[in-house]
């Protein structure tokens, strides 16, 4: 039986070759176990040792007694140690050396690609030369290990790892904890509060459990909670502006709202409605103005602009008009 990179084998110590280490044999082939790759006491000729087979820096088969985080044909979650702009990602595999995940396995859009510290579900395989290589785990690799999302989890906040991210949304392997390996969920694009990378750790809320046992997820809290947070964000934005006004309202396009505030237009309208009902802001045309109550809310002090927001609210017919809201 020939020696293959990625396998753990029990081999007999054939001989010691100072200053390098020991040659191990399966009866047909020899492989070097370097002194630096020994764990525990040094073996003696004739002993049988369990080793992991890999390629060294000169592409020669070598052996190590260190325990790898993944073996040939296995699936594991490995941490991104480094990113090369042309080659791909280098992953930690527990041996003091790194495993390449080629660029061809990564998303085309750069903002979706992993960064150091992210963790990816991968399979260990070979390249055409027989060297070890990582391959991104696909849905068909992960699905047999997953379980259906329990009905009791609806509304629960969960954590998980992004396994695929596209324009339509991001797929997440939800932590299984004591239940099992994990469950599948998806965050639709409209429910993402920001761009998500492949391999990123994410928190989300289960909004719906589908008949196939998978979950729809959202990164924002429930509407009644989000409405308060979004309203506070809008108020803070207005208070920071010298005029106490902004060229954003119910009429503003959804893409501009998403870019400026990181929320959907419907969420923006709910938050504005709350502020107007409370008398904190007013609207005229495509502009929103801070009212007296909104300017003095919180610490009881007028905002630092000396009351210009109140003047703008009182005279909405003559607001400062920027050339382009996106350049604000």
General description of the model:
The protein is of the alpha+beta class and 328 residues long. It has 4 domains: 8-64, Nucleic acid-binding proteins (OB fold (Dihydrolipoamide Acetyltransferase, E2P)); 75-137, Nucleic acid-binding proteins (OB fold (Dihydrolipoamide Acetyltransferase, E2P), Beta Barrel), CATH 2.40.50.140; 146-218, OB fold (Dihydrolipoamide Acetyltransferase, E2P), CATH 2.40.50.140; 223-327, Arc Repressor Mutant, subunit A (Orthogonal Bundle), CATH 1.10.10.10. 17% of the residues lie in helices and 34% in strands. Strands 1-2-3-5-4 form a 5-stranded mixed beta barrel. Strands 8-7-6-9-10 form a 5-stranded antiparallel beta sheet, with no helix packed on it. Strands 11-12-13-15-14 form a 5-stranded mixed β-barrel. Strand 1 and strand 2 form a beta hairpin. Helix 2 (223-240) crosses helix 4. The longest helix is centred in the last third of the chain and has 18 residues, at 223-240. Residues 317-328 have a biased composition (Pro residues). This is S1 motif domain-containing protein. Residues 283-328 are annotated as: Disordered. It comes from Paenibacillus cisolokensis. InterPro entries: CvfB_fam, CvfB_S1_2nd, CvfB_S1_3rd, CvfB_S1_st, CvfB_WH, NA-bd_OB-fold, S1_domain, WH-like_DNA-bd_sf.
């Amino acid at each position: 039986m020939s020696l293959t990179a990625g396998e753990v084998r029990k081999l007999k110590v054939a001989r010691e070759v100072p200053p390098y280490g020991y040659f191990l044999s399966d009866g047909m082939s020899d492989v070097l176990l370097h002194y630096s790759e020994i764990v525990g006491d040094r073996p003696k000729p004739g002993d049988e040792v369990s080793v992991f087979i890999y390629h060294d820096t000169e592409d020669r088969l070598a052996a190590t007694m260190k325990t790898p985080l993944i073996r040939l044909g296995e699936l594991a979650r490995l941490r991104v140690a480094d990113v090369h702009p042309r080659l791909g990602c280098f992953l930690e595999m527990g041996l003091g050396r790194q495993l390449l995940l080629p660029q061809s396995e990564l998303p085309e859009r750069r903002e979706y690609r992993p960064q150091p510290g992210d963790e990816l579900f991968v399979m260990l395989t070979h390249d055409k030369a027989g060297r070890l290589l990582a391959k991104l785990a696909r849905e068909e690799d992960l699905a047999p290990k997953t379980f259906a999302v329990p009905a009791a989890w609806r509304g629960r906040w969960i954590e998980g790892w992004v396994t695929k991210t596209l324009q339509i949304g991001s797929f997440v392997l939800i932590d299984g904890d004591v239940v099992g390996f994990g469950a599948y969920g998806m965050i639709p694009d409209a429910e993402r509060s920001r761009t998500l990378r492949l391999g990123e750790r994410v928190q989300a809320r289960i909004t719906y459990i589908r008949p196939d046992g998978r979950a729809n997820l959202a990164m924002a809290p429930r509407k009644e909670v989000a409405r308060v947070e979004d309203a506070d964000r809008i108020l803070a934005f207005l208070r920071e502006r010298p005029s106490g006004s902004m060229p954003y309202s119910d009429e503003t396009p959804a893409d501009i709202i998403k870019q400026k505030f990181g929320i959907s237009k419907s969420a923006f309208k709910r938050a504005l409605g709350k502020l107007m009902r409370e008398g904190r802001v007013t609207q005229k045309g495509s502009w929103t103005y801070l009212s007296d109550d909104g300017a003095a809310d919180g610490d009881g002090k007028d905002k630092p602009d000396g009351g210009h927001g109140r003047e703008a609210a009182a005279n909405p017919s003559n607001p400062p008009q920027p050339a382009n809201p996106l350049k604000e």
